[in-house]
Request: fold
Amino acid sequence: MISFLADTFTGVFTPPLRIKEFTHQLYFVANRSLFIIALCVSFAAVVTILESSFHMKMVIQNDSMVPGFAAVLILRELGALVTALLLCSRVGAGYASEVGTMQITEQVDALKMLGIDPINYLVVPRLLACIVGGVLLTVIANVTCIIAAMMVSQSYLGYTPGVFIASMHRFVQMKDLFFAMIKGACFGAVIPLVACYFGFRCQQGAEGVGRVTTNTVVVASIAIIVIDFVLSYTFTHLY
Reply:
């Protein structure tokens, strides 16, 4: 794994820069994932508002702080994490099956015979696309979450958008969005690295492809949650 990471890091700074492949992968990561991410984070925001209101009313008999707390939770945690886990399921599984199939059908060996570095050709464009796509989708997911939370706050709790935004200003800082973008980039980097690592080690036909796909989703999901803990703990010292 260390050798694979070192080769990938070196490949990022080694020409040729495969702009066309990067653009193709960015379209696959960002545009093809946009609808499902926007839909899922919207429902996650609605559940966050409803649960926060229920528990605040139960504990302190007042839910006036729900909009502010929900906005903080969305920006610091919910948007980036839900986006990454959805990308892991969709993009990570796709990359693992694609690279795994290329491995067992000897297409990777064919690339080597043609003098093409598989790391530079397969891993680097996917890595860069997932980093950029992770940042873009995290920002879009956060904005979508806030809008959904604002709408349900108005319809269910009776707080107007003006009250919601005023409450946001009390709790949210600009660095919350910046930290969320850092999380999006780190989460995005993990997905293709894990997927391609397992894909290059695929064996035993269709059964092997299924195994590397499952391993990719499980390992990448665990890695994302661990990285989320490390980054969240680090960011708490920067406020």
User: Anything to note?
Assistant: The chain has a mean pLDDT of 87. Residues 19-60 form the longest helix (42 residues). The CA atoms of residues 83 and 187 lie 9 Å apart. The helical segments are 2-12, 19-60, 66-104, 107-113, 118-157, 161-171, 174-200, 205-235.
